[in-house]
Design goal:
The complex is a heterodimer of chains A (204) and B (83). Chain A is mostly helical. In chain A, 75% of the residues lie in helices and 0% in strands. Chain B is built from four helices and no strands. The chains are: A mainly alpha (204), B mainly alpha (83). Chains A and B meet through helix 1 and helix 2 of A and helix 1, helix 2 and helix 3 of B.
Chain lengths: 204, 83
């Protein structure tokens, strides 16, 4: 017959609370992480491409303006305003360089948005594992502890009453004495009677 | 003007929170083990607690990798690199 060696039921109560707290705290932390991942996805799939699309448009406008400026300089430089023409050509070169950069960044933003989705998929497994612990493993553990605590409480109550002699007050169990009730039926669900604190007839 | 980088603070906070919660819980479990010394305890540990640490370690490593990717990508997409 399997017996239990528990020196403090309160210690188990603390553990049951700690298991419940861990489950709740992890659930909150995981929600925060998932929510932040969602915002980061938006950052790479929407915000970054939008930024570089806008910069590309601005660069195209600047190039068009620089080209217009050069045309105007050609029209007015017949009398020889070489420095102005040179400056206009330099502006065109700078605008072209900027446009090339923006187009490259826009292509890179699309590529990174796809890579980001892959990075999130790699994270999905490890997240699901911890979510499983927070939402299933730990609550189940807390449930098992609750059943065990129920058994030990009833056992402690029963043995305290059995030790009473007429005229004596109930004394607390000595600290060092472990509770050792048989726990063969530990995994048995707690019956309604037990939940209400009504003792079943002793079967052992 | 530079595009704003992704805000990774909530991820870092969440990751620290997971670790801190687990650390506190591990301390509680170590205390309980002193008062609960039977086969049932070992079974409880095996079924409900043993997987927590390794899963958390895997998630932490994956999050570190994910964060590195985000930081690198933000750097590549910033103005300063290409200019």
């Amino acid at each position: 017959m399997e017996t239990s060696d528990v020196r403090s039921i309160d210690s188990l109560r603390l553990l049951r609370n700690a298991v419940g707290d861990l489950s709740n705290d992890w659930t909150i932390a995981l929600l925060q992480i998932k929510s932040s991942m969602h915002r980061t996805r938006e950052h790479f799939s929407t915000n970054m491409p939008a930024y570089w699309k806008q910069q590309t448009r601005i660069a195209e406008q600047k190039l068009a303006e620089a080209q217009d400026n050069l045309s105007r300089q050609h029209g007015t430089s017949a009398s020889g305003q070489a420095p102005a023409v040179t400056e206009a050509k330099q502006r065109i070169q700078a605008a072209k360089r900027r446009l090339t950069i923006c187009e490259e960044k826009l292509r890179l933003a699309s590529k990174i948005a796809i890579q980001f989705d892959q990075a999130c998929q790699e994270l999905a497994g490890p997240i699901a594992e911890v979510v499983g612990h927070a939402s299933v493993t730990l609550p189940n553990g807390a449930g098992h502890l609750a059943i065990l605590i129920g058994h030990l409480d009833r056992y402690a109550e029963r043995t305290s009453f059995n030790n009473l002699t007429p005229g004596m007050n109930r004394s607390p169990r000595p600290q060092e004495e472990p509770l050792s009730p048989p726990l063969d039926d530990f995994d048995r669900p707690v019956s309604l009677q037990e939940k209400r604190g009504v003792e079943d007839e002793p079967s052992r | 003007m530079n595009p704003l980088p992704a805000n990774l603070s909530p991820i870092i906070d969440g990751q620290n929170q997971l670790r801190q919660n687990f650390k506190s819980f591990a301390q509680c479990w170590a205390t309980t083990k002193e008062d609960w010394r039977d086969a049932r305890r070992d079974q409880f540990e095996r079924e409900h607690l043993q997987g927590l640490g390794p899963s958390l370690a895997r998630l932490s490593a994956a999050l570190d990798q994910w964060r590195d990717f985000v930081i690198k990508s933000d750097r590549e997409l910033s103005e300063s690199i290409a200019e």
